[in-house]
């Protein structure tokens, strides 16, 4: 049985992931599982949607399959199927395998002419009261020039350095980068610094979906991790 939360919407040309939860009602052995993506669904990087396994599941156990993808559909499309899930399995006391193929759900599409990603520029871990450089890349998927206003509304756990509000023009199929510096006042799992976009050409409801592509959290340590190595040399007596 395929179960899970209904996907309310999916922004095209933006990275997202889906998770398929499969619940079994008897003791089975899963041999292979593979997701056949729809033509418009493109896996990100080396993401593999096929898995050879020997998972033994008892009655009521659930196994999940996750995949990071982007959807590249036509501008006039309002929804798309994700594809199909194929599982080869056999009962615990069985010899022959059974191949089950089930369709995945269809998802409504949001056609937004811009997308955004956010990353940390420094390779070392983020630490309390040390500068953290955050880079945002805003990319255009439109044939027209778009006027955008970017603003930041940070949580109280951050100090901010940079322009909190900036208006710029995004050229067709071009990208625009914004780099800000924040300083965490406390350690732990903090909300990722969010950026809000507004445009006279795009509705606010559509632009709100662009922030879903940003990381949800930022992990901040109390101090920078370090590795110390101590050598103990044997003593020699002459």
Summarize the structure.
The chain is mainly β and 238 residues long. 2% of the residues lie in helices and 51% in strands. Residues 156-201 form the TRAPPC10/Trs130 C-terminal domain.
**Which residues form runs of ≥5 with pLDDT under 50?**
1-6, 227-238
Sheet with the most strands?
A: 4 strands, antiparallel
| Beta strands, count | 20
CATH superfamily of the largest domain: Immunoglobulins
- The helix content is under 10%
| Assembly status | single chain
Tell me about this structure.
This protein is 2% helix and 51% strand. The protein is built from one helix and 20 strands. The strands form six sheets. Strands 1-3-7-5 form a four-stranded antiparallel sheet, with no helix packed on it. A four-stranded antiparallel sheet has the order 6-4-9-10, with no helix packed on it. It is flat, with a radius of gyration of 24 Å. Mean pLDDT is 81; it is low at 1-6 and 227-238.
């Amino acid at each position: 049985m395929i179960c899970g939360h209904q996907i309310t919407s999916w922004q095209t040309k933006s990275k997202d992931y889906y998770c398929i939860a499969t619940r079994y009602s008897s003791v089975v052995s899963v041999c292979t599982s593979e997701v056949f993506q729809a033509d418009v669904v493109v896996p990100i990087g080396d993401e593999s949607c096929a898995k050879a396994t020997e998972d033994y599941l008892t009655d009521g156990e659930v196994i999940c399959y996750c995949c990071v993808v982007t959807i590249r559909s036509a501008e006039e499309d309002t929804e798309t199927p994700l594809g199909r899930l194929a599982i080869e399995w056999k009962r615990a006391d069985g010899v022959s395998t059974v191949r089950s193929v089930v369709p995945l759900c269809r998802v409504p599409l949001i056609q937004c002419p811009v997308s955004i990603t956010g990353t940390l520029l420094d390779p070392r871990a983020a630490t309390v009261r040390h500068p953290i450089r955050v880079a945002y890349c805003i990319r255009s998927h439109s044939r027209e020039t778009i006027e955008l206003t970017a603003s930041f509304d940070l949580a109280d756990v951050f100090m901010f350095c940079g322009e909190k509000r900036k208006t710029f023009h995004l050229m067709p199929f071009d990208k625009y980068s914004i780099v800000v510096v924040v300083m965490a006042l406390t350690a732990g799992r903090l909300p990722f610094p969010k950026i809000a976009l507004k445009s006279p050409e795009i509705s606010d409801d559509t632009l709100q979906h662009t922030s879903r592509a940003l990381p949800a959290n930022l992990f901040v340590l109390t101090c920078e991790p370090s590795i110390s190595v101590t050598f103990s040399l044997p003593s020699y007596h002459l």
